[in-house]
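A further point concerns the way the authors explain their paired sequence and structure data. An entry of this sort, consisting of the sequence and the corresponding backbone structure tokens, reads as follows:
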Amino acid sequence: MITQNDKLGKNFLIMIIFMLVFPILFSSISILMLSIHFSLPNIQFKSLTDNKMLQGFSTIFLSIILEAFPFIMVGTILASIIQIFVTEETLAKIIPKNKFLGLLSAALIGLVFPICDCAIVPVVRKLIKKGMPLHIGITFMLSVPIINPVVLASTYYAFSNNIYIVIMRGGLGIIGAMIIGNVISIICDNSSVLKKVDMDFQHHHRHYHHHDSDCQCGCGHSHYNSGKKHNIGLTIMEVVDHTTIELNDVGRFVIIGAFLSSLMQTVVPRKYILLVGHDKIYSILVMIGLAFLLAVCSETDAFIARTFVGQFTTGSIIAFLIFGPMIDIKNTLMLSETFKSRFIIKLIFVIFTVCFIIGAVVNYLPFKEGLIL
């Protein structure tokens, strides 16, 4: 029989292997594949180190991974602690009933409860099922991953201690989330967005509340009942277990995102990147599309965004940093487990519209370049 100590040790080992060994192995394989494709047929080992394309790819890829690593660790550990010790009921009590104050509180609560975008959807799902107004839940979901202190710190570090980019990301993210939440309150309501199975859950939740506190949510995160009294060993095991799951979710998307970003900047001719990247409209569309498809955790996306500075417009980079934490392909799939497709389409459209407008406004600011360089 596997003991708790064995499970704890196994999870620690998985964390170390996944975050240290796998990125190095992945980058080595990627470099080898690129060398086979782009180098001469009679390639020798020396040409691997002399190939500028491979050098550029490996430099960009490994710099993203290594710089993001400490923020991944801190972010996942904090998110795990929040998930275990802070209940949805606690969050619901903090938010005022007044519409404007509710939106503002929901938008700012991420400063206190640093939950990343990889774990926010299951939390919001439960809050809305338990009766939280839809617009409050959506504002909470969109804003928290942006103003998470770890996210703001990683953005500050990634952009060479530039406080202006942090203010723009945090401030415009809060404003955007509140606008989106207000629009959602006008065009949707709680009763029309949940799938039937979740509406049944909401109606009968009071009867079954004591059974589901330790269940597994659709995203694979474990949500422990913080009301239970745990000994120190069990609590540590829960934090490590949850952190391991978070690392699995976050790490793979960071690696994929870093790989695609590095590949794009080394394989695609620079003239084509600049042709699109310097256009005030197309650049925003491209970066929003990248944010949706890459699905990189908000705690590390700034390191990827930083590699596009000088190649893409300031507004497009801001749009990338705001749109990605709000919605991406993985969060869309998680939302589809609870919400109707029509609502998800409306939500994505509203998020896209608001983020596009924010990016366009930034692009037309006369002093925009000095804010991000």
